[in-house]
Amino acid sequence: MKFNKVFSDSLNHCYAIMRISKNDKDFVVVASEENEPCYAYDLNNNYKRINVWNDIGGTMTMIPIPGTLDFLATQKFYPGFNSADCRIVKESFNGKGWDQHVVGDFPYIHRFDLIQHGQGIWFIGCSIANSKKNTDDWSDPGKIFVGDYDDSTANISNYHALDIRLKKNHGYKNMNGYSLITAVEGIFKLSYPTLKRDWQLTQLSENETSDIISADTNGDGDNEYLAIEGFHGPYLRIYDHNFNSLYRTPADTPFGHALWAGSLGERQYFVFGFRSGLQNLELLSYGSDGKLTKQLIDKQVGPSNVTVFEKNGSKFLLSANREINEVAIYQISASKN
Question: pLDDT at position 80, please?
Fold first, then answer.
C-alpha cells in the first residue's frame, strides 16, 4: 500500500480523533490532551478548519451521537492520569460550528461509548482509576460504569458501576454487538443486557493489555486480534479468534498507543503507532505463514490515535501525530508493481 500525506496542521499534543458526517456535512475532528483547542476539518471544503472549542481540552474520547453531527467528549483529563476533574461535554452542531453544554463531572473517565439499542442509548464509561494520590498512584483500581443516555436532555440516568475493578483500565473497543475492555488484569468482553440477563463481563486473557483491535489479516475467515501488551507497550501480541496466543514481538515498540483495523484494498490490515523510541506509524499484517509483516507509513511522528475513512471513492488515514504536534491525513492507494 502507498500512503501519501495530503494534509497537515499543527495542534499541540493532538490526541482524540473522530469522523462525523450527515447529509451534505462531513468533518474529521481532532482534540488535544492539553489545555488546547479542538478543531474540525471540513472534508467538503478543502479541510477548512473550524474551532470547536479554543481551550479546556484534556480530551481522551469523542463519540458521535447517532444520526447527528453532535457528539460527546471528555475534557480536563489532566494532568497526566491524575484527572479527578474530568468532565463530559455535549457539542451540538448549529449549522456553522458547535455549541457546548456540560453533561457533568466524570472523574478519571478515560474511554466511554454510546451504544444504540431498540429502547434508546446505553452509556459505557471506563475510569482508568477510581482515585489517585498522585499521577503514579494506581492503588485504587478503575471501574466500568453503565447507564442510559437521553440526548434530549443530555443526561445519563441509572448511572452505576459494575462489580469488577480494573487497574490501568485503558483500552476499549466497540465490536458491534459487545465491547472489549483491557487492563492490567487482561482482556474482558462486556456483553450488553438483554431481557434475560444484565450486563456481563467475561475474561478472555490474563495478559496485561493496553489496547486491542481485530481483523482477518491472514484471510482464513476468522479475525485475529492485535493487542498492545503492557501498559502503553512495548510488546505486540497476536491472538486467534479464540484468544489463543499466536505471536509476540520483542519489546521494540515503546509506548504503543495508536491502533486501527480493517479493509484496505482487497485485504485486511492493522495500523499501529508508538510514541517513544522510533515513534513509527506502521501497516501490519499477520500472514498464514505465522509471520508479522510491517510496512512503514511514517517515521518519528509518535501517533496517539489513528482511523481510516472513505471519501469520494478513496480511503484516507487520519493520524494524530502527537509527538510532533501534527494533525495528518494520508491518502491510501494500492502499490504499483
Answer: 77
